[in-house]
Amino acid sequence: MLLARALRAAAALRPALRPPPRRLLLSSSSPRGLPPPPPGAAPGLARSLWQLGGGGGRTALLRPRRGSAGGVSCGCGGLHTEGDKAFAQFLTDEIKEEKKIQKHKSLPKVSGGWELEVHGTEAKLVRKVAGERITVTFNINNSIPPSAEEEAQEEQKPDEQEPELTSTPNFVVEVIKDDTKQTLVLDCHYPEDEIGEEGEEESDIFTIREVSFQPTGESDWKDTNYTLNTDSLDWALYDHLMDFLADRGVDNTFADELIELSTALEHQEYIKFLEDLKSFVKCQ
Fold first, then answer.
1. What is the pLDDT of residue 207?
2. pLDDT by residue (tens digit) across 191-230?
3. What are phi and psi of 118, to 5 degrees?
4. What is the distance between the alpha carbons of residues 128 and 104, in angstroms, rounded to a whole number?
5. Residue 176 in 3-state DSSP?
6. SS3 3
7. I need a labelling partner for 50 at 20 to 30 A (CA). Which of 28, 134, 246, 266 fits?
8. Exposure pattern of 112-128 as b/e (b: 16+ CB <10 Å)?
9. Is the separation of the CB atoms in 169 and 209 below 8 Å?
10. Are 181 and 211 contacting, i.e. CB atoms less than 8 angstroms apart?
11. 8-state DSSP, 86
């Protein structure tokens, strides 16, 4: 129920189907903040491969040069080219650089007695308070705003370090009471214009988007149950819902710590992806 719900929430928040831009890969032979690729270049890894080639016509290392398709067999039956070798070396350098800037070697804890469960890219925080079980579930996939990297490049000045990318995932709060068969489910997200704003200490950095009751223990979200959208909700009722969450530990402090946790998990999974990609290219 939670994963399907989170994916549905993500689709509603970001209607564009293209994935968010990937962070700049940090080649040890070139500084961060390289110029963007030419129009039409693929985002993310393909863009960085274009930059590695110097931007002078070598648009991809994945495509072998004519006459160099012959590879060395290692017994796996796969193709191995000079491009694969260069690709693997490039990934080796990138992994080293990403580990150098990795802020958290282990995932940070969230204060307030929350217990963390991680399953791949999905994480769940669980807290029990006086006959209630509160769970907060989020997925780090597509959790970096699409415009984050582009804006960072535009604002970056010469000789300045590239700003860190921040993961701000949608998250679902479930409140389960011991003596009821229904679970109160609140779909929350971080408005992009609220992240990083200063001077408004009383402002909430996250918002509630939808509220619904779902059968306790059910794995599938039931669209036949009434879902309250807060866009047209009376502000007094909305404030009471926010206070209801704050009383159960889901407040601005929690939301800040969730961002830190999600960012650390996203970076950890990104490094693991690069390591898996290198092993795949090298056929280890």
1. 97
2. 976 555 554 456 899 999 999 999 988 777 788 899 999 9
3. -125, 130
4. 27
5. strand
6. helix
7. 266
8. eebeeeeeebbbbbebe
9. no
10. no
11. H
